[in-house]
């Protein structure tokens, strides 16, 4: 148990250090990057020939057109350019349904470059500085950049995650030594409150702060449920040391949060640790769950094996389950693997909706998705559909993305090889096309 906790702590520290490294890189104007900013052009009609297009089952040689940024197989009256895809394998763009990028000027240019380079066009920022996201709003959500949905601050309780991380950053503490030496001060600080998180202790807090939450125009509501079975036990605990990573809102408040969110036409994403957290979230009607219980390590008070009933309800309600890809790049403990095996045995036969999220600053899901393929968690067809179709659907529901179909957005990648035979071909991108725009002028002719 002690060894598992140390492994988990080391991973968390690594993620935080990467966060800091990227957050304070020198500011570089986004216009200097050829893959982040292309010359504005009028909407055009392109014809794509000799492409092998993914149809959800395999690849078929077809001809498609992009007309005003929309895919069609119907021949338009005129064509501006014929583009030969040279037998490349065409897939929908990738997504990242759990990240913490795109909320700071000093790193946003590098992040946009990184995502576009990896073919990840859609990102769900599951917690962020609301103020930071506002400052970079003009740089995202356009054809030549990444389309992003934001939580703009998660709902938690006092002395709970993620206030530890965001208060440390708000106070200007950027190293583990600083965090450890100033832990008490960090926990008592409230500089990032109502920006990166909201403290919700009771129903009165929820009613009082709800207008403030909506005032930030979040794209969805993020709630933290971290070992909520011991919520009452930890209420009197005031942390004075660094390293505590549990907590969250009172599980009794979750149904009220979901009701308010759905009335405001907002979906709810819940971060969970334990099987009890999972039970609370699913039964309250959340729309997405970040992580599966026990995805990192198992604490003494945790039960991470979900029930058959909760698995069935998850599928019945269409809840998306985001798997953290970065976790599959490391050696995992026996307890993590056992929990995952149990939970997958219940969820996969029922065709649960999985999605992929990196949850690691400074990287996209690509390397983790390849690691998942090598572990055999899903076959290559399942994994490609999860990454292209499900992940896009939970990031930007309602948009016609994630498929290569009539009337969908003309956004796709052209790979050199067949990812159904060799999943690492997802890295071999020779061509990117987004909403009728070429991404990277040097790639105009694949």
**Class of secondary structure makeup:** alpha/beta
Q: Quick one: overall form? A: globular
| Tally of individual helices | 13
What are the low-pLDDT stretches, counting only 5+ consecutive residues below 50? 1-11, 13-41, 441-446
CATH fold-type name of the largest domain:
TIM Barrel
Any idea what the CATH architecture of the largest domain is?
Alpha-Beta Barrel
Largest sheet: 8 strands, mixed
Say how many strands there are: 19
| Count of domains | 2
Quote the beta fraction: 15-25%
Mean model confidence by pLDDT = 89
* CATH domain class name of the largest domain: Alpha Beta
Fold and architecture overview:
By secondary structure, the chain is an alpha/beta fold. The chain folds into two domains: 33-92 and 403-446, Roll (Urease, subunit C, domain 1); 94-399, Alpha-Beta Barrel (TIM Barrel). 32% of the residues lie in helices and 20% in strands. The chain has 13 helices and 19 strands. It has helices at residues 2-23, 105-117, 130-135, 163-171, 176-181, 183-188, 203-215, 254-263, 275-284, 308-316, 334-347, 366-375, 380-395, and strands at 45-54, 59-67, 70-72, 81-84, 89-91, 94-99, 120-125, 147-150, 154-156, 197-199, 220-226, 247-248, 267-272, 288-290, 320-324, 353-357, 412-415, 429-434, 437-438. The strands form four sheets. Strands 1, 2, 3, 4, 5, 17, 18 and 19 form an eight-stranded mixed beta sheet that branches. Helix 8 packs parallel to helix 9. The longest helix has 22 residues, at 2-23. The protein is globular. The N and C termini lie far apart (52 Å). The model is unreliable at 1-11, 13-41 and 441-446 (pLDDT under 50).
């Amino acid at each position: 148990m002690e060894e598992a906790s140390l492994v988990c702590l080391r991973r968390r520290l690594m993620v935080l250090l990467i966060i800091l490294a990227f957050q304070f890189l020198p500011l570089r104007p986004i216009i200097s990057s050829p893959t982040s900013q292309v010359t504005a052009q009028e909407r055009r009609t392109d014809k794509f020939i000799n492409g092998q297009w993914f149809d959800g089952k395999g690849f078929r040689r077809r001809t498609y057109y992009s007309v005003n940024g929309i895919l069609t197989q119907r021949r338009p009256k005129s064509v501006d350019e014929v583009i030969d895809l040279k037998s490349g394998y065409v897939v929908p763009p990738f997504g990242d349904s759990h990240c913490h990028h795109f909320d700071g000027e000093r790193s946003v240019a590098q992040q946009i470059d990184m995502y576009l380079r990896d073919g990840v066009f859609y990102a769900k920022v599951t917690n962020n500085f609301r103020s930071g996201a506002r400052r970079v709003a003009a740089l995202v959500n356009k054809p030549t950049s990444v389309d992003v949905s934001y939580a703009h601050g998660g709902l938690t309780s006092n002395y709970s995650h993620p206030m530890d991380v965001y208060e440390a950053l708000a106070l200007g503490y950027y190293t583990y030594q600083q965090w450890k030496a100033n832990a008490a001060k960090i926990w008592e600080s409230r500089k990032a409150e109502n920006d990166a998180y909201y403290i919700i202790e009771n129903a009165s807090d929820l009613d009082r702060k709800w207008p403030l939450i909506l005032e930030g125009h979040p794209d969805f509501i993020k709630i933290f449920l971290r070992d909520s079975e011991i919520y009452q036990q930890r209420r009197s605990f005031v942390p004075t040391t660094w390293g505590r990573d549990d907590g969250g809102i009172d599980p009794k408040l979750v149904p009220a949060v979901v009701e308010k969110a759905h009335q405001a036409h907002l979906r709810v994403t819940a971060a969970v640790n334990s099987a009890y957290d999972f039970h609370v979230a699913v039964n309250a009607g959340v729309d997405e769950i970040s992580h599966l219980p026990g995805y990192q390590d198992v604490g003494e008070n945790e039960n991470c094996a979900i029930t058959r009933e909760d698995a069935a309800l998850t599928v019945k309600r269409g809840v998306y389950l985001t798997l953290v890809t970065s976790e599959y790049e490391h050696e995992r403990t026996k307890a993590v693997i056992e929990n995952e095996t149990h939970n997958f045995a219940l969820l996969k036969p029922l065709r649960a909706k999985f999605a992929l999220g990196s949850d690691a600053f400074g990287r996209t899901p690509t390397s983790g998705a390849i690691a998942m393929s090598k572990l055999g968690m899903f076959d290559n067809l399942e994994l490609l559909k999860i990454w292209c179709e499900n992940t896009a659907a939970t990031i930007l529901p309602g948009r016609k993305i994630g498929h290569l179909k009539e009337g969908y957005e003309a956004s796709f990648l052209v790979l050199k090889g067949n990812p159904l035979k060799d999943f690492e071909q997802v890295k071999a991108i020779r061509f990117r096309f987004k909403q009728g725009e070429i991404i990277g002028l040097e790639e105009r002719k694949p």
